[in-house]
From TrEMBL:
It comes from Komagataeibacter medellinensis. Residues 188-266, 280-369 form the SLBB domain. Gene3D superfamilies: Outer membrane lipoprotein wza domain like (3.10.560.10), wza like domain (3.30.1950.10). It is found in: Cell outer membrane. It is a multi-pass membrane protein. Pfam families: Poly_export, SLBB_2. Residues 81-181 form the Polysaccharide export protein N-terminal domain. Belongs to the BexD/CtrA/VexA family. It comes from the Bacteria. Keywords: Cell outer membrane, Ion transport, Lipoprotein, Membrane, Palmitate, Polysaccharide transport, Porin, Signal, Sugar transport, Transmembrane, Transmembrane beta strand, Transport. This is Polysaccharide export protein. Residues 1-25 form the signal peptide.
Length: 399
């Protein structure tokens, strides 16, 4: 009877052995990864697997995003010289000083009549008149009484005053004109996003820089967040560049001079990465340091598990810049800006630990540590032990 019970248990074990491949797993093995890469039915996004190597690290390090300093180098010289020019939307205050009978004095007509009759007093030697605020229209012109329309776009306040004076010389005795800007739209930048006081910041001849205008807008609105989590986007002449705020703070070359018309957007973007597979911890982790390496990211998740993981099959999933993938020989759609790629790190090779210390993580990277191909066998063995152990124990007690 006992012999029959043993046979039944062994038969059940053999049946389970046939179903070993159907046991649950936390993810694919290296073999399954390689097979899926070449199967269009499984690889529907068209990813490729690239080994982490010194050449790859070099390409990634040299592929820097557009720097603010590159935008500054392309800036027209005329815009770098002044922040006091007039443009559409500005509001000007025009003051005119005249000698004798003044064109713009309210009492000039009465004074002229009294002088002609011989009964009036001697005209005032000089008269100062301030015109109502003058707006610069969309064509860049202003309208001044007795002077007509004057094109002022791109002129400084002194040059605008000269242009008005030239128009009035034939009609007024020794006119002198003073112009100042009441509302400066042309010489301003927009600062918005995650700042305390989103606003239009007026530039001055002092030549404010990026950090200056962010400070004038009140700075970041969440002081408890690390500066590395704030991204500054600069839009200038249809060109866009962005970088972490902390990079600008640490690299004075990137703290460039603002130009009229620039737009600065400050965005809070907490960076994170995700770990799946045979690791000590399946988790999503935020990182606040300016640079986080792949070695640091893996260690924070507990590293590969000895009992389950395949150390030579550690994968990092990323939507990479298309220019990077073209440089390493991958075929990428000509119009694509990014494309999916899987970087593989062989942690059985000691030299690759040095590469892992140089490989920089990016926001939303995904690390997957593959299961060992023997993992299912150990699962199956544990399952068999669970099933037959009670029978073995009962047989031993029966003796």
């Amino acid at each position: 009877m006992q012999r029959r019970g043993h046979l039944i248990a062994m038969g059940g074990a053999l049946l389970l052995l046939g179903g070993c491949s159907s046991l649950p797993a936390s993810g694919p093995t290296e073999y399954q990864f390689n097979r899926a890469q070449h199967d269009p039915r499984q690889n529907t996004v068209g990813y490729g697997i690239v080994q982490v190597s010194p050449e790859l690290i070099s390409v990634l390090d040299n592929e820097a995003p557009p720097r603010f300093s590159s935008l500054d180098a392309d800036a027209p010289i005329v815009h770098q010289a002044h922040n006091d020019t007039v443009g559409p939307g500005d509001v000007l205050q025009v003051s005119i000083y005249e000698i004798g009978s003044a064109l713009f004095s309210p009492s000039s007509a009465a004074m002229a009549a009294a002088s002609a009759s011989g009964t009036g007093t001697t005209p005032s030697p000089s008269t100062a008149s301030s015109l109502p605020p003058v707006s610069v229209d969309g064509n860049g012109t202003i309208e001044i009484p007795f002077a007509g329309q004057i094109q002022v776009t791109g002129l400084t306040t002194s040059q605008v005053a000269e242009a008005i004076t030239d128009r009035l010389r034939q009609k007024s005795q020794a006119p002198q004109v003073v112009v100042r800007i009441l509302s400066d739209i042309a010489n301003s930048v927009m600062v918005y996003g995650n700042v305390r006081q989103p606003s239009r910041i007026t530039l001055t001849p002092n030549r404010e820089r990026i950090l200056d205008v962010i400070a004038l807008a009140g700075g970041e609105n969440h002081a408890e967040q690390a500066d590395a989590d704030y991204v500054v986007r600069l839009t200038r002449n249809a060109h866009i560049a962005e970088m972490p705020l902390q990079v600008i703070e640490n690299d004075p070359v990137q703290n460039i001079v603002m130009q009229p018309g620039d737009r600065i957007q400050v965005t809070l973007q907490p960076r994170s990465y995700t770990v799946f597979g045979a690791s000590g911890q399946v988790t999503q982790t935020q990182f606040h340091t300016p640079v986080l390496t792949m070695a640091q990211a893996i260690s924070r998740a507990g590293g590969p598990l000895d009992a389950r993981a395949d150390p030579n099959a550690v994968y990092l999933f990323r939507f990479e810049n298309a220019s990077v993938l073209r440089r390493i020989g991958m075929v990428v759609d000509q119009n694509a800006k990014t494309a999916p790629v899987v970087y593989q790190l062989d942690m059985m090779n000691p030299s690759n630990y040095f590469l892992a210390q140089k490989f920089r993580m990016q926001d939303r990277d995904l690390i997957y540590i593959a299961n060992s191909s023997s993992n299912k066998f150990y699962k199956f063995f544990g399952l068999i032990s669970t099933i037959i152990a009670p029978g073995i124990t009962a047989a031993w007690i029966a003796k």
